[in-house]
Amino acid sequence: MPEPQPVMPRCWRVESKPHKFCPGCGHGLVLKCLGEAIDELGIQQNTVFGCDIGCSLLSWDFFNVDSVQTHHGRTTPVVTGIKRANPDTVCIAYMGDGGGYAIGSQHLVNAAGRNENITVILANNTVYAMTGGQMAPTTMPGQKTETSPYGRDPGPTGYPMLGPEMVSAITREGAYVARGSIANLRQLKSYIKKALENQLAGRGFSFVEALAACPTNWRTNAEETWRFVEKDMASYFKVGELKNPAATEKAV
Ligand SMILES: Cc1ncc(C[n+]2csc(CCOP(=O)(O)OP(=O)(O)O)c2C)c(N)n1
Ligand code: SF4
């Protein structure tokens, strides 16, 4: 008898599975939450998925939806253009912390500032993973990477970037902003779903950072990987909703 297969979101592309991420990678979990949210909202037919450079690009053929791949943070303006030209589409930009907060941060900042009606989902794994694990804006103080072999020193390199806090500060009332974690998939999926619902309601920009794992570059075993995500990362990067216009509307 064939082995029972794990249940996949209906909008995942079966032909491209098993996927190309390393074992234990956080990207697959974030994309599973996104897939389930797309299924539950019934928006597969009009969804456009954009992925960035970095390991996120390994999702270029992940979904059975129209997809586009771009370079460092440019996914945000590319899907912005698609959304403006086709307002009935649901446009999602998927990227890593290097793409969204460093090399392409201007695109995130300006799309958020303009309250573009798109959804950005950013996997924060604290490193530039695809290029070999260099220090990223999100690298934790003391964390060893290829370019911080003695641990990140906040003196010369600053403290880790707080992306959702920044997006929250520069957006207006229609924006949805949250930080979830692969350590709580039910919650992460609900944040992603609410971000997509915000776009469907036409309120404006929605942004979800997901705390994710890169055991390959962290050089961690399973136990160390989960400890780093659940304890170390979560103690600095606070998980929760920062802006939820739907809740504010309900309260008024
Ligand atoms: C302008 C530019 N600079 C550098 C690179 C090389 N590069 C490709 S992927 C990458 C790191 C991506 O890291 P991140 O966005 O955090 O994604 P991850 O791989 O961690 O998922 C870099 C530096 C590039 N493609 N373009
Ligand atoms: S290098 Fe890291 S982020 Fe990239 S696929 Fe492997 S585990 Fe995932």
From TrEMBL:
* InterPro entries according to UniProt: 2-oxoacid:Fd_oxidoreductase, THDP-binding, TPP_enzyme_TPP-bd
Gene3D superfamilies associated with the record: 3.40.50.970
A GO molecular function annotation here is:
oxidoreductase activity, acting on the aldehyde or oxo group of donors, iron-sulfur protein as acceptor
Ranges for domain Thiamine pyrophosphate enzyme TPP-binding come to 62-209
Keywords of this entry: Oxidoreductase
Give the residue spans that cross the bilayer. Answer: none
Mind listing the GO biological process terms from this record?
cellular respiration
The entry's protein name is 2-oxoacid:ferredoxin oxidoreductase, beta subunit
Organism from which the protein derives:
Desulfoscipio gibsoniae DSM 7213
